[in-house]
Design goal:
The strands form 3 sheets. Strands 1, 2, 3, 4 and 9 form a 5-stranded antiparallel beta sheet that branches. The chain has a two-stranded antiparallel ribbon with strand order 5-8. The chain starts with a strand and ends in an 8-residue tail after the last helix. The model has no long low-confidence stretch (mean pLDDT about 85). The longest helix has 15 residues. Strand 6 and strand 7 form a beta hairpin. The protein is of the alpha+beta class. Helix 1 crosses helix 5. It contains 5 helices and 9 strands.
Length: about 190
């Protein structure tokens, strides 16, 4: 693995083009309440995007591009030898990778978005009712109310990249490829 040469930062902003749902679970639902809330920062009360959600989506897309998920029945790669294991970590017992190269930070609501919400007296989330359809009968099955962060919000994200001797630009290049794929795909529940 070599010695740690430096820690680089990849920073950016996630702008929601549609509502985003990243759930947090619930213990109970009040009558008429939302049964599927979004995860929120306990300090501010605003929604945020966990770094693990960005990391998991990015890893999954990169593995799909390389044909890994189809070979391993949806389990993440744990070979310990490939670039994905080096950058994202190895889930196997016999890790040959050592230290994971990428640390994904939680993406919190940007200051610009907070100011817009306050200025326009808007809530950061909305309720969206979804319904499953019985395709044979053509009838609705089970309406569900989900909470989601509203379109237009911006979230600041950061990935810390540990660069070890001999890594070259590999980890950063892989992460940039993954970010481009997430941008073209979706994030969160129901593909926002």
């Amino acid at each position: 693995m070599g010695t740690l040469e430096k820690i680089e930062q990849i920073k950016g902003k996630i702008i929601l083009k549609t509502g985003l749902h990243i759930g947090c679970g619930t213990e109970g639902v009040e009558i008429g309440g939302i049964d599927n809330p979004v995860i929120k920062d306990p300090r501010s009360g605003y929604p945020y995007i966990p770094g693990s959600s960005i990391k998991g989506k990015m890893r999954c897309l990169l593995e799909l591009r390389r044909g890994i998920r189809s070979q391993r029945k949806e389990a993440p790669c744990s070979c310990g030898d490939c670039d994905i294991c080096r950058v994202f970590g190895n889930t196997g017992k016999d890790s040959k990778v050592g230290v994971t190269r990428a640390v994904f930070r939680d993406a919190f609501l940007s200051q610009e978005s907070v100011e817009v919400l306050k200025k326009r007296n808007l809530l950061a989330t909305e309720a969206k009712t979804e319904n499953s359809i019985d395709r044979i009968k053509g009838t609705g099955l089970d309406p569900r109310v989900s909470e989601r962060a509203i379109a237009g919000l911006g979230f600041d994200f950061e990935i810390a990249v540990r660069r070890f001797e001999g890594d070259g630009d590999g980890p950063v290049s892989l992460l940039r490829e993954g970010l481009a794929m997430v941008q073209r795909d979706a994030l969160g529940g129901s593909g926002s």
